[in-house]
């Protein structure tokens, strides 16, 4: 049984999942802390999506930690398929949320001061960047697992 | 050699490609005709992406028409891989463009009259919907071809 680096149960996968958990949490925190994000649809959407991505990636971090450091778990095609579909759906939602946030932030920056007081816009930008990074890592995980699937 | 419905050279694929070509052209026309779309980054981005999607999908419509009605072309794994990667990249770009456009339009609708004169905002909305449909069909094509790839 060949081992694909980045597929479930490898240390590369653990690194990808840790990255997803860190970036999605950072994106949520940059957007939430002290900002009335619910006045903008795009920002509420980002917060909702990150609320799904964070528990998903933390669960998979725990599975990977167990698999790497304690005991290699057996791979079952059905479970791996479910993980691939979950990753794919969440990565598409993250991409949509990140690009919505980025474009709305760009528009607010154009309008200027009344909507961007106290460096709020740079926080929106940071949040969008973190969401893009989280999307990229989820998508990479999904592709690596998809590559692994036929050999099971 | 099994035939996957929706993979290159089938009539389902031709229908998907036709849908992509129609929806992406509609999205471009709703956005461009008589509107200063270049004052907004998100709208310029949508127009740029649709400028790539339209020739791509029209080329593949022609290939599929030839393959369905004239002579079944042989499938080569390399060409199919290139088509899958192209579809995947363009579908991700379309999704990002569609969600950016949708969120900016939502913000403009909130602000109201000065930015939404002469039903411009409903045209932006229609353009975003068409871009979402084009994304969905590109992504479906990409997945069907990916499913077909291992059997080559």
TrEMBL record, chains A, B:
**Where does the source fall among the domains of life?**
Eukaryota
- According to the record, the segments passing through the membrane are 21-39, 45-67, 79-104, 124-147
Which Pfam families does this entry report, sorted A to Z? CASP_dom
State the compartments where it is located.
Cell membrane
Q: Which residues form a coiled coil?
A: none
- State if Transmembrane is listed as a keyword: yes
Q: What is this protein called?
A: CASP-like protein
Q: What is the lineage of its organism?
A: Eukaryota, Viridiplantae, Streptophyta, Embryophyta, Tracheophyta
């Amino acid at each position: 049984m060949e081992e694909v680096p980045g597929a479930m149960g490898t240390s590369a996968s653990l690194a990808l999942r840790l990255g997803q958990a860190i970036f999605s949490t950072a994106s949520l925190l940059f957007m939430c802390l002290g900002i009335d994000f619910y006045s903008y649809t795009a920002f509420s959407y980002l917060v909702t999506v990150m609320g799904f991505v964070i528990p998903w990636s933390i669960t998979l971090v725990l599975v990977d930690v167990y698999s790497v450091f304690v005991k290699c778990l057996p791979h079952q095609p059905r479970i791996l398929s479910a993980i691939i579909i979950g990753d794919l759906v969440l990565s598409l939602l993250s991409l949509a949320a990140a690009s919505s946030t980025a474009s709305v932030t760009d528009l607010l920056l154009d309008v200027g001061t009344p909507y961007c007081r106290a460096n709020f816009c740079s926080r929106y930008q940071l949040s969008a960047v973190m969401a893009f990074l989280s999307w990229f890592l989820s998508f990479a995980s999904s592709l690596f697992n998809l590559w692994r699937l036929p050999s099971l």
